[in-house]
Amino acid sequence: MTAWLFPGQGSQQVGMGERLFESQKELVEQANEALGFDLKSLILNGPEEELRKTENTQPAIFLVSYLAAQELLKAERPSFLAGHSLGEYTALAVAEVFDFATGIRLVRKRGELMAKAKAGTMAAIIGLKKETIEELLQQVEGTVVIANENSPQQFVISGEVEAVNKACSLLERAGARRVTPLNVSGAFHSPLMEEAKNQIKNVLQGIEFKKPKYSVVQNVVAQSVKDPQQIKANLVEQLTGRVRWIETLQYLGAAGVKKFVEVGPGKVLSGLVRKTLKGVEIKQFV
Predict the structure, then answer these.
(1) Cα atoms found within 13 Å of the Cα of residue 31, Cβ hemisphere only
(2) What DSSP line would sit under 27-57, residue for residue?
(3) 203 Cβ partners below 8 Å, 6+ apart?
(4) 65, 85, 158, 190: which is the annotated catalytic residue?
(5) At what angle do helices 161-173 and 130-137 cross, to 10 degrees?
(6) If we measure between CA atoms, which residue out of 194, 190, 191 comes closest to residue 156?
(7) Within a 10 A sphere around the Cβ of 163, how many other Cβ atoms?
(8) Which CATH number applies to 121-181: 3.30.70.660, 3.30.70.250, 3.30.390.50, 3.40.640.10?
């Protein structure tokens, strides 16, 4: 069995997916029309600081990943789909839960709401167990939580700037191999996204979700969800909830998946599969 994995924010780069734009001009035009600006030009030409803005990054990665998936569908069919944070929207669009134009408008809106959220930051922690991190975070005043469980050795914390900085110092002293502040515009997947979560809930209420054509494993529950209303509820929870990526990969492994394909820009998710599961085949397609 094969699972396709769709990347999230951080995998963007100017020029990504260039070869896909010529072969799927109609979808590219649809994207530009849905958004009201030339997304293709921004992806291919930059400038990088514009592409890095959350409200631009999200539709850009969504577009490149979706185009790659449409090409790959000509050759094979996946047993499962999963996406990391933003990538979950790509997975749901590929599974035809909502159409392409709806998906790209959704991720643009999601990016705008996240960019406007309360100021905060994030940091990657390598080399400590989840339990140790959680224990130390409880000692920090202010809001700071685990946002992403990426691999058994890599976690991301998120929250108020001062709280995250204090947590980083504590985690370094506790023996973290590496503590890396992330260049992000907000505290994603934390309580600081509560207002954005409420607004995305209102946006999603007006959109009809269909039953997925392929099994989609969702971030906040780390299991396949088929009911359209539950899928929608999980997407809302995702903004403040934890990305349970380790459990997502373990769920796929236990279901019998032996081949993982990272569909879209970058190799981040391939690295996380390698660190979490043994004896599986890993490929990239973009």
Answers:
(1) 27
(2) HHHHHHHHHTS-HHHHHHH--HHHHTSHHHH
(3) 106, 109
(4) 85
(5) 130
(6) 190
(7) 22
(8) 3.30.70.250
* 264 three-class SS: coil
SS3 6: strand
Q: Residues 103, 90: contact at Cβ < 8 Å? A: yes
Q: Is the pLDDT of residue 118 over 90?
A: no
Q: Is 85 a catalytic residue?
A: yes
* Domain 2-117+191-285, CATH class in plain words: alpha beta
The residue to which tokens 């058994």 are assigned: 152
> Catalytic: 84?
no
Given 11, 151, 158, 189, which residue is catalytic?
Answer: 189
Alpha-carbon gap, residue 185 to 187, rounded angstroms: 7
pLDDT band for position 261 (cuts 50, 70, 90): very high
Q: How far is it, in rounded angstroms, from Cα 192 to Cα 68?
A: 33
Long-range contacts (CB closer than 8 Å, 24 or more residues apart) made by 86-89: 86/7, 86/8, 86/9, 86/58, 86/61, 86/62, 86/110, 87/5, 87/6, 87/7, 87/8, 87/61, 87/264, 87/269, 88/6, 88/216, 88/218, 88/219, 88/235, 88/238, 89/62, 89/235
DSSP per position, 61-126: HHHHHHHHHHHHTTT---SEEEESTTHHHHHHHHTTSS-HHHHHHHHHHHHHHHHHSPP-EEEEEE
What tens digit of pLDDT does each residue of 60-116 get? 999 999 999 999 999 999 999 999 999 999 999 999 999 999 999 999 999 999 999
Query: For the chain, what are the domain ranges?
Result: 2-117+191-285, 121-181
pLDDT at 283: 98
CA gap 192, 236 in Å, rounded: 14
Residue 274's Cα: distance from chain center in Å?
18
Whether pTM exceeds 0.90: yes
